[in-house]
Specification:
The complex is a heterodimer of chains A (186) and B (110). Helix content of chain A is 56%, strand content 15%. Chain A is built from ten helices and eight strands. The longest helix of chain A is centred in the middle third of the chain and has 19 residues, at 92-110. The radius of gyration of chain A is 29 Å and the shape is rod-shaped. Chain B has 110 residues and is an all-alpha fold. Chain B has helices at residues 2-25, 29-51, 56-79, 83-109. Chain B has one domain. The radius of gyration of chain B is 15 Å and the shape is flat. Classes of the chains: A alpha+beta (186), B mainly alpha (110). Chain A binds chain B through residues 14-17, 41, 44-45, 47-52, and chain B through 26-31, 34, 83-84, 86-87, 90.
């Protein structure tokens, strides 16, 4: 189910009469007049709701000798809400592009000729800067504190803050003065 | 008679507003919107009646003209299988028929 289909379905379900229609159809397939009688609504109102439900993919119809019967589209209701929210968003790609553009802008602002001009005060920007610095460390390789300091000092004089913040952001891990790069960076 | 008819229209508007509130409270938004259509019909009649300086015969003539447009719309909606439009036009025609019937009854009694 696409995001748009899910939105249509939820909007359609947010109506007590339509929910009552679905409950009736969950018991058995029915025609308009029967549903109208059961729910105390007029047949045109039932037809109106059924059209909405059909457009949202919640019900289907089929013709018998005398009536058009309506039935629940069970497959739609098999999808769990968790599955829906875990599905990739229709505009996920667009969001990714926006994130990348923002990232590039931050890097261009704070780095100049390979040097870090200043440490961003905004957390989100600092994270991007630190992720960029983490690329200077080889994955799987262990570094002494002195080696870490030398690498970071190449970017900015305040290497102590950078080292500490990279540990805080879990971009570097530390154990007994030995440092290594984690896989938490983008 | 004009006051009696206007009072009847006001009563019907009040009743429909109550019905609309009930439907909204029951999370039946679309049906509440349909009730609003009925309220609008009463208001259209009321405005037409007032614009005609309380001449009922002229009001009914003008109002019937509006209703015939709705009947045309209803016919077209049926032809195209447009359930939503069909229902809306049916609501409008039903309320208009009620008003016209009531007005004629009052006219006959006066």
């Amino acid at each position: 189910m696409t995001e748009t289909q899910a939105l249509m379905l939820f909007k359609c379900l947010a109506d007590r009469s339509r929910l009552q229609i679905l409950k009736s159809l969950a018991q058995e397939d029915m025609y308009v007049e029967r549903l109208a009688e059961r729910l105390g609504l007029t047949p045109p109102t039932i037809s109106f709701h059924l059209k909405k439900l059909a457009d949202a993919g919640a019900v289907k119809s089929y013709k018998t000798q005398y009536y058009t019967m309506y039935a629940l589209e069970k497959s739609v209701f098999m999808t769990s809400i968790l599955e829906l929210i875990q599905e990739k968003s229709d505009d996920a790609e667009l969001q990714k592009q926006r994130d990348e553009a923002y990232r590039k802008k931050v890097i261009d602002t704070f780095f100049e000729y390979g040097k870090l001009k200043s440490i961003p005060t905004q957390k989100k920007k600092e994270r991007i800067v630190l992720e960029e610095l983490a690329k200077a460390f080889e994955p799987g390789k262990e570094y002494t504190e002195r080696e870490v300091n030398i690498i970071l000092a190449d970017y900015n004089d305040d290497f102590c803050t950078l080292r500490r913040d990279m540990i805080g952001e879990k971009l570097l891990a530390r154990d007994h003065q030995i440092y290594w790069r984690t896989d938490k960076q983008k | 008679m004009k006051e009696e008819l206007l009072s009847y229209i006001d009563e019907r508007i009040a009743w429909h507003k109550g019905e609309q509130s009930r439907l909204k409270a029951e999370y039946r938004q679309d049906e509440a919107a349909h009730v609003q259509i009925a309220i609008n019909v009463y208001n259209i009649f009321r405005s037409t009646y007032q614009a005609m300086k309380f001449d009922l015969a002229e009001t009914l003539k003008r109002f019937s003209g509006i209703v015939s447009t709705w009947e045309e719309n209803h016919k077209r909606a049926c032809e195209h299988g447009d359930e939503e439009k069909r229902l809306i036009e049916e609501i409008k025609i039903a309320r208009a028929t009620e008003i016209l019937r009531r007005a004629k009854e009052m006219e006959a009694m006066s």
